[in-house]
Structure formats: C-alpha cells, structure tokens
C-alpha cells in the first residue's frame, strides 16, 4: 500500500516518465479495518510532469508507527469492526 523511494544524493527522476521530481507535500490516505486516516500534507517527492508521488523512508516509518499506535489505542475502544 505504501510506495517506498530510496533517496540518495542523485537527482530524482520519475520511474514512470523520467520527469523531474521536486520536494513538496502530498496527501496520504490509509484504509484500515474500521477507520480511514487522511493526512493532508506529508513531505513527499512529486513528479513535475505526471504528478507521481513518492514518500521517503522517514515519512513512511512515521506513518506506519502512527498506524500501529492507532491500532493499539482502538483495541480499547468498544467499536464493532
Ligand atoms: Zn512522472
């Protein structure tokens, strides 16, 4: 569900169109069993040509740990999933 992008010091090019990637932000949407999480402005690389978005490891890790925390906290909430 999460596209990972290995970031190194080389110039970023889009794997789809070879367009130029620029640092920006993008919304990140997670569908989980019982809830949906929409983060509006996650730092990301955005292709200036086709709009493809890549998230870096650090952001992906943060989001995954956020999801883990949500899952743990939600186990204490009496909702039916
Ligand atoms: Zn592209």
How would you describe the overall organization of this protein?
This protein is α+β, with helices and mostly antiparallel strands and 81 residues long. The chain has one domain (14-74): Roll (Ubiquitin-like (UB roll)). It contains 1 helix and 4 strands, in the order E-E-E-E-H. The model has no long low-confidence stretch (mean pLDDT 87). Bound molecules: zinc ion. Zinc ion (ZN) binds next to loops. The site of zinc ion has 8 residues, from loops.
Looking at this protein, list some descriptive labels.
Ubiquitin-like (UB roll); binds zinc ion; four-stranded mixed beta sheet; 22% helix; 81 residues; alpha+beta; 4 strands; elongated
Along the chain, the helix and strand elements come as EEEEH
Q: How many structural domains does the protein architecture include?
A: 1
Radius of gyration: 15 Å
What is the multimeric organization of the chains shown?
Answer: single chain
CATH architecture assignment name: Roll
Report mean pLDDT, rounded to a whole number.
Answer: 87
Query: Which regions are unreliable across 5 or more consecutive residues at pLDDT < 50?
Result: none
Ligand catalogue = zinc ion
Quick one: how many beta strands? 4
If helices are DSSP runs of H or I spanning 4 or more residues, what is the number of helices? 1
- Termini, distance in Å? 21 Å
Topology:
Blueprint (H helix, E strand, L loop, with lengths): L3 E2 L15 E12 L2 E13 L5 E4 H18 L7
The structure holds zinc ion.
């Amino acid at each position: 569900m999460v596209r990972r992008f290995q970031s190194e010091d080389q110039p970023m090019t889009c794997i789809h169109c070879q367009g130029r990637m620029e640092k920006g932000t993008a919304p990140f949407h997670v569908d989980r069993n019982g809830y949906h999480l929409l983060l509006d402005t996650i730092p990301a690389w955005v292709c200036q040509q086709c709009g493809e978005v890549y998230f870096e490891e650090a952001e992906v890790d943060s989001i995954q740990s956020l999801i883990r925390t949500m899952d743990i906290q939600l186990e204490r909430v009496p909702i039916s999933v």
